[in-house]
């Protein structure tokens, strides 16, 4: 928080104000010109005010929570709370009813829930009643007309003759079971909130998510469209057969071409009716409905009338109990089976979705869909059973057509004709499709019924399919299809979707024979039923508080049974088409998941994900830890993630999405309610930032003015159960030397003085005390906080300051600039790492003095002007113009930050993979194997050092180096750590063998910390004497590091062991500085001596 965000009144005044308004009901009425933040704050009741001119350190508006900052009117005072509530509700109702200007209506789109009149119970008065169809005209009639198809008059008698009355009834009842269970699941989903346009697609997508909804929605659209084509072709075939047989008339060939012409004309005629409007189409549906019922009554009346000779010769004998007994059991012909009968009948029942497809045109979809669908299922199922029983009671299975069936004189049952032996009977219940037409009181009326059922089914599909497509396109499920979402008129008719559906339907009609597609359509509908049932089961099993259906007569296990039954029937009917259906579904599912993963509709998928995560956390918390399951769970003190992206990226190379990564941030603000709101805002922003950077981690912040106390709070509270950090990763404090300088102006409250250094080192000491593993990461000499550079480059776009260069804090560079030289030059590793290193202490050969260019990485400097630092267009190493190359040969991505810097992008340093890198491990102390495990993780294939070569270094002073080398190699092989080489250095840490350059560096640091001529010293003489031997040891280790690892890609080294008072002393910072200065990225590691690797299986 910046200073501009400080409270405008004192704490005492704030407390008085809070006491004054305590226990008073407060309602905030937002001003019309109020910002969205102010409205949200008013809705939450915190009375905050946003100062647009004041920003904090992350660019967010500062929050003023003072009484003066409240931008709302307090409607309260001494009046009664109930009267205040009534006044506020009335004012809001008037505000909603008034015709507000456009600017105000636009501003209200982002307003809070306090602007919602439903919150005050005034929605019924302020919102007009929705126009639409009721449950009878909108759902019941449409479902009945779609279920009643050609099967009713042309196939039910044939099913009774083939399967018999018992198995035929089983076919009907099994289909009834499937559709009833599906209707129950659909009703539960439909009554769990407001249902909009899209029908089954809308229900599934809002329950299971866009992947399931979009996939099955497109399949349903195609199935309904082609189903309309099939009905049109079926009607056309009936017309061609009628005209050809009875009148000898034909248009072209009297075959498939005539079928195409009649079917296309039928489709155009139905589409024209739909274009007129849904209200006119609904009236047409009412006329068709009346015609169908008249035909059904005509059939029943015809069975009661005296029989004609033609009826008798064709097998109609009237009501007879003997005929019923003969037709009771199955007698399949021509390879027909029970599955065949089910496949013929079940497509008729797929019309139960017709009412749901009209959900956008219904007055109250949540009530209309369940009521109308169940009544439609009951009425149509009873009607189908009725027609099957009537035909089985009145018609024999086989008839010759030229003689009446004969009665047996003894049994008084009809005998089987001779044509049955060679299957040449053309008439009878099992052979003739026109039995119901023959039984009707007036045969042409039954033909009209066939036309009516076919037209009604086709019409229902042609009007329902475009609405599914409209909803799909409105949600932008598929690219380049959004224009089809546009609606016209008051009823939002999808005219564009009508045209596309018409083209697809006519294209399918051109096939002429759609029998091969019939199984695929049935499988598409069964897949939709299966997904609908699974959606209800999944939503119920997730146990989300938001799933509260108004329809209570459902059960999750019943829905699961229905889903499994639908899938089973799909494969039993025709397994090849079932595989095709699943293949299409999976392709669409993967496509939508890849393109629409950001959509969040509060689906059961998210609810189940939460439930599984909670259960997993509870199970893990009850599981005892084992070394084989150890994972490094990092708490990274990253602060502002954007400013310290390099630290976060390096930490993610370790966690890599396989272990916990927590980015801790100590917000320098006093702990308060305002700070809590700020932290929530930061949490949302940095969580989004982590997602955009493809980093699988979490952000956690604590508001505290003390760094050490804030970290203590994090260590105590961060994590959940066993998902708690076990490693504290902190960036190296590059300014420690400046902070430790003692001057007369320093005081404990100075954020850049000794107090801040003690805060920083206290964090490390506290982590040691908490028995946590600690890692300190130093990013060469560059540092980790690049916020200043980021703002300079983003805002001014000028050449970055000289502090970008890696020689910023190098005392060796200062020596070179002053012309200082030494007779005995300290050796330094070359860039070529392919040379074989000895396994014992190396000789201190005299080497030439390295230049500054040898110390810097091999880069090409590119500045905003397009030239390098000297104005030349060529790089320092002669690389191609405009390119930037790190020493490893890895190129940086073009969208990284600091693109115009004079060195590789620091923000993307640990994002760019480096081939052929080296990871050096200096294993100096027993830390449980943590340093080895981290080195292994850094070399994984998806880090910035894939398959890098690992070199292990260790130092021994008293043991035999060869024995140590042999044992170390054996141990590494047992631990399955793949290494390139192992080096054991024999060292006695003789102070007299140190290079003069190393001693001068040490003296320079000591002169800075303990300057002469002053009474105050940063390091007491007692600590100096106490740590003298260790200091000399680390000076020698510095020389070894420079000699062997200064040209490596990254170095991991055991962190120096020390007591708490030494850690808080500047001498510990001096040790870390000496070991890491002028080195590649270095990670200090100190484990808690708990084994993290094991050789057991």
From TrEMBL:
Q: Give a Gene Ontology cellular component term annotated to this protein.
A: apical plasma membrane
Q: Which residues cross the membrane?
A: 132-154, 166-189, 261-280, 286-305, 338-360, 372-393, 495-514, 520-541, 553-573
In terms of Pfam families, this protein maps to: AA_permease, SLC12
Q: Which reaction does it catalyse?
A: chloride(out) + Na(+)(out) = chloride(in) + Na(+)(in)
What membrane topology is annotated for this entry?
Answer: Multi-pass membrane protein
User: Which coarse location class applies to the principal site listed for this UniProt protein?
Assistant: membrane
Q: Where does the SLC12A transporter C-terminal domain lie?
A: 644-1096
The UniProt keyword set, sorted, is: ATP-binding, Cell membrane, Chloride, Disulfide bond, Glycoprotein, Ion transport, Membrane, Nucleotide-binding, Phosphoprotein, Sodium, Sodium transport, Symport, Transmembrane, Transmembrane helix, Transport, Ubl conjugation
Q: Where would I find the Amino acid permease/ SLC12A domain in this sequence?
A: 138-635
- Where found in the cell? Apical cell membrane
The reply on keyword Isomerase is no
Q: Where is this region: Disordered?
A: 106-125, 810-835
Q: Which GO terms describe its molecular function?
A: ATP binding; sodium:chloride symporter activity
Name the domain of life this protein comes from.
Eukaryota
Cited InterPro entries: AA-permease/SLC12A_dom, SLC12_C, SLC12A_fam
Q: What does this protein do?
A: Electroneutral sodium and chloride ion cotransporter, which acts as a key mediator of sodium and chloride reabsorption in kidney distal convoluted tubules. Also acts as a receptor for the pro-inflammatory cytokine IL18, thereby contributing to IL18-induced cytokine production, including IFNG, IL6, IL18 and CCL2. May act either independently of IL18R1, or in a complex with IL18R1.
**Its quaternary structure?**
Homodimer; adopts a domain-swap conformation at the scissor helices connecting the transmembrane domain and C-terminal domain. Interacts with KLHL3. Interacts with IL18R1; this interaction is increased by IL18 treatment.
UniProt name for this protein = Solute carrier family 12 member 3
Q: Source species, please?
A: Heterodera trifolii
């Amino acid at each position: 928080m910046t200073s501009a965000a400080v409270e405008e009144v004192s704490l005492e005044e704030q407390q008085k104000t809070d006491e004054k308004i305590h226990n008073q009901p407060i309602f905030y009425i937002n001003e019309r010109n109020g910002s969205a933040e102010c409205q949200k704050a008013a809705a939450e009741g915190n009375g905050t005010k946003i100062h647009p001119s004041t920003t904090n350190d992350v660019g967010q508006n500062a929050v003023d929570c003072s009484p003066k900052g409240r931008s709302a009117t307090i409607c309260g005072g001494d009046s009664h709370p109930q009267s205040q509530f009534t006044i506020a509700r009335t004012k809001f109702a008037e505000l909603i009813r008034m015709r507000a200007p456009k600017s105000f209506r636009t501003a209200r789109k982002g307003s809070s829930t306090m602007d919602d009149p439903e919150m005050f119970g005034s929605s019924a008065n302020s919102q007009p009643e929705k126009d639409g169809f009721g449950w009878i005209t909108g759902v019941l009639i449409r479902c009945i007309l779609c279920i009643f198809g050609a099967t009713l008059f042309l196939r039910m008698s044939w099913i009774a003759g083939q399967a018999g009355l018992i198995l035929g009834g089983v076919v009907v009842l099994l289909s009834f079971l499937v559709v009833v269970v599906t209707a129950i699941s659909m009703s539960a989903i439909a009554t769990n909130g407001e249902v909009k346009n899209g029908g089954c697609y809308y229900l599934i997508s809002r329950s299971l998510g866009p992947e399931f909804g979009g996939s099955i929605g497109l399949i349903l659209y195609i199935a309904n469209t082609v189903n309309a084509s099939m009905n049109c072709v079926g009607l056309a075939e009936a017309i061609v057969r009628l005209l050809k047989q009875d009148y000898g008339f034909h248009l072209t060939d009297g075959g498939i071409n005539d079928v195409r012409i009649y079917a296309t004309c039928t489709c155009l005629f139905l589409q024209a009716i739909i274009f007129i409007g849904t209200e006119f189409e609904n009236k047409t549906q009412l006329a068709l409905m009346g015609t169908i019922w008249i035909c059904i009554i005509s059939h029943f009346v015809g069975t009661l009338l005296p029989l004609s000779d033609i009826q008798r010769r064709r097998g109609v004998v009237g009501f007879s109990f003997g005929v019923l007994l003969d037709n009771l059991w199955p007698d399949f012909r021509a390879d027909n089976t029970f599955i065949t009968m089910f496949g013929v009948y079940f497509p008729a029942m797929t019309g139960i979705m017709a009412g749901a497809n009209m959900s956008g045109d219904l007055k109250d979809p949540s009530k209309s869909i369940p009521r109308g669908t169940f009544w439609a299922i009951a009425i149509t199922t009873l009607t189908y059973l009725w027609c099957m029983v009537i035909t089985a009671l009145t018609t024999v299975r086989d008839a010759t057509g030229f003689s009446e069936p004969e009665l047996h004189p003894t049994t008084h049952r009809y005998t089987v004709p001779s044509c049955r032996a060679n299957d040449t009977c053309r008439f009878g219940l099992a052979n003739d499709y026109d039995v119901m037409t023959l039984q009707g009181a007036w045969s042409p009326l039954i033909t009209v019924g066939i036309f009516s059922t076919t037209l009604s089914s086709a019409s229902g599909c042609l009007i329902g399919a475009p609405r599914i497509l409209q909803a799909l396109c409105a949600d932008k499920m598929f690219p380049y299809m959004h224009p089809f979402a546009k609606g016209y008129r008051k009823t939002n008719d999808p005219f564009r979707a009508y045209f596309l559906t018409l083209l697809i339907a006519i294209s399918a009609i051109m096939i002429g024979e759609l029998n091969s597609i019939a199984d695929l359509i049935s499988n598409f509908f069964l897949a939709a039923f299966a997904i609908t049932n699974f959606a209800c089961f999944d939503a119920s099993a997730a146990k989300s508080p938001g799933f509260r259906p108004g329809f209570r007569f459902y059960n999750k296990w019943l829905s699961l049974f229905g889903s499994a039954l639908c899938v089973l029937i799909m494969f039993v009917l025709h397994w090849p088409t079932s595989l095709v259906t699943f293949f299409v579904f999976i392709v669409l599912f993967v496509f939508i998941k890849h393109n629409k993963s950001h959509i969040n509709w509060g689906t059961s998928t998210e609810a189940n994900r939460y439930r599984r995560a909670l259960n997993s956390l509870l199970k893990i918390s009850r599981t005892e830890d084992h070394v084989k399951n150890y994972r490094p769970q990092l708490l990274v003190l990253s602060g502002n993630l954007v400013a310290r992206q390099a630290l976060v990226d390096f930490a993610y190379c370790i966690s890599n999405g396989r272990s916990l990564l927590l980015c801790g941030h100590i917000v320098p603000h006093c702990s308060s309610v305002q700070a809590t709101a700020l932290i929530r805002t930061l949490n949302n922003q940095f969580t989004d930032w982590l997602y955009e950077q493809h980093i699988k981690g979490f952000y956690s912040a604590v508001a505290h003015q003390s760094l050490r106390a804030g970290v203590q709070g994090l260590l105590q509270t961060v994590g959940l159960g066993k998902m708690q950090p076990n490693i504290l990763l902190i960036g190296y404090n590059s300014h420690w030397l400046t902070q430790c300088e003692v001057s007369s102006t320093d005081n404990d409250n100075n954020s850049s003085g000794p107090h801040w250094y003690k805060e920083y080192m206290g964090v490390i000491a506290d982590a040691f005390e908490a028995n946590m593993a600690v890692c300190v990461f130093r990013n060469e000499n560059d540092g980790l906080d690049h916020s200043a550079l980021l703002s300079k480059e983003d805002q001014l776009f000028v050449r970055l300051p000289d502090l970008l260069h890696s020689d910023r804090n190098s005392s060796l560079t200062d020596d070179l600039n002053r012309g200082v030289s030494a007779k005995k030059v300290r050796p330094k590793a070359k860039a070529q790492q392919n040379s074989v290193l000895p396994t014992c202490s190396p000789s201190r050969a005299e080497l030439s003095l390295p230049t500054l260019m040898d110390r810097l990485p091999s880069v090409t400097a590119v500045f905003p002007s397009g030239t390098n630092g000297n104005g030349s267009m060529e790089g320092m190493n002669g690389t191609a113009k405009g390119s930037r190359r790190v020493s490893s040969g890895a190129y940086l991505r073009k969208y990284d930050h600091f693109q115009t810097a004079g060195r590789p992008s620091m923000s993307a340093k640990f994002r760019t993979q480096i081939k052929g890198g080296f990871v050096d491990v200096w294993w100096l102390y027993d830390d449980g194997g943590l340093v080895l495990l981290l080195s292994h993780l850094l070399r994984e294939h998806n880090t910035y050092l894939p398959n890098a070569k690992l070199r292990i270094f260790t130092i021994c002073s008293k043991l035999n180096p060869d024995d140590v080398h042999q044992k170390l190699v054996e141990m590494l092989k047992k631990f399955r750590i793949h290494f390139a080489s192992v080096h054991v250095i024999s060292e006695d840490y003789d102070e007299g063998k140190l290079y003069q350059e190393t001693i001068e560096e040490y003296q320079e640091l000591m002169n800075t910390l303990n300057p002469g001529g002053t009474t105050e010293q940063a390091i007491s003489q007692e600590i100096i004497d106490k740590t003298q031997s260790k200091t000399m040891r680390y000076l020698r280790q510095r020389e070894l590091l420079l000699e062997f690892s200064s040209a490596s890609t990254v170095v991991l080294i055991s962190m120096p062991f020390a007591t708490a008072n030494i850690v808080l002393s500047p001498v510990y910072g001096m040790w870390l500085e000496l070991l890491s200065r002028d080195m590649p990225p270095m990670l200090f590691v100190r484990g808690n001596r708990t084994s993290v690797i094991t050789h057991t299986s």
